[in-house]
Each structure stands twice: as structure tokens, then as C-alpha cells.
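Following the same procedure, sequence and fold were stored together, as reproduced here.

>
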Amino acid sequence: MLNAIHSPEIVLPPRRHLEKPGGQTIEGLVFIAGLVRELEVTSAFEIGTFDGVTTWTLARNMSSGVVDTLDLPAGERAELALEDTDEEVRELVSGHVYDELPHPATIQQHWGDSASFDFSEWNGACDLVYIDGAHSEPYVESDTRNAFEMLSERGAIVWDDYWRQVDGVPRVLHKLAAPRPRRIPGTRLVVHLTPKAEALLHQAGAE
């Protein structure tokens, strides 16, 4: 899998936007961009926009299509319990990278709480769902449930923040039925691939 994902040419944001507090790591962005390229993603849904670096990376590495991204509006209280770090990270956002840099795919910003947002429009339609919203167990469970509903037959789900600094993500992922999602070495990411996505990556890695 990694051989295929690390093979295509990818585009990352300018260095000044990388590795800011609360943001995705460079290795994480490399994996996400390569996955988008190899699966030829045309529909992606991101839960947790933050500063838009990952949003832009998704859109910039798609040849066409739409990235839908959801975040809680500034000043609005979350409906479910949060991790202590969730509120701290929200205060770091001052703008969105995708407003500054060009991208071939369309980006649609949605505002709302992922615990009550109506995802039904995207059921079965997303080639990639990226989960990086609130990190408490109730939110990760809700976001994961919705992600599996949205997943296309050739799609992938990627979770961020599988590490020691938050408990919610590993707790939820450890409860998932087999096949368990796989950790990506050198990152905080975990990925679930549908059988068709697995086959596409296997074929690409063998070529």
C-alpha cells in the first residue's frame, strides 16, 4: 500500500503553512496527498477544517471534483463533550489557507456541529473521508459512524490524532470490528480501505 501511495507526484502547501501548532504533519500530508492521487479521488469530505491546510491539500491533489469540509462556527458551543485540547486548538485559527492558494477542485465550506449535521446527501458518495474534528470519544464515535455511511465502494477513511496526547481516537478505533484500520508509520494517521480501494492500491504498487 505505502509503495503505491508514495509513488505519485504530489503538491504540498508552501513551507510557511506547514507544521503549525494543531496542524497536520508533513508526513501526514504526504500520505493524504498520495492517497488522493492513487485512488483518483473526486469527492472528499473533511470533518474538522481547522486552518484549511489539509482541505487545500485534498483539493490541490485532485484533478477535479469537490472537497466538502465541516467545522463548528467560531463562538458556538459543541453539543457533546470535548477533550481539553479541542477548545485550545480552535483558538489558533485565524484564517483558511484555501482562501489564499489556488486549487483545481471545488471547496465547499459547511458550518455546523458534526454530531447533528445532516450527512445524508453524501451517503455512499465519498471516495475519501478525513476525520479530524473534536477528539473526545463521543465525537469520534459519531464522526466514524457517519464516515462509514458516506464511504463510496472505492473509498478510504483517514483518522488523524491516533497518539498518546488524546484518548478518544484510539479508544474508538480499538472497538471497531475487523478488519481493523491500519496505522501509517511516521504519522498520527490511521486508514481504512474498502476492498476495491485495497485492490486499486495493490495494483498500483505492483506496476
Observations:
- The mean pLDDT is 92.
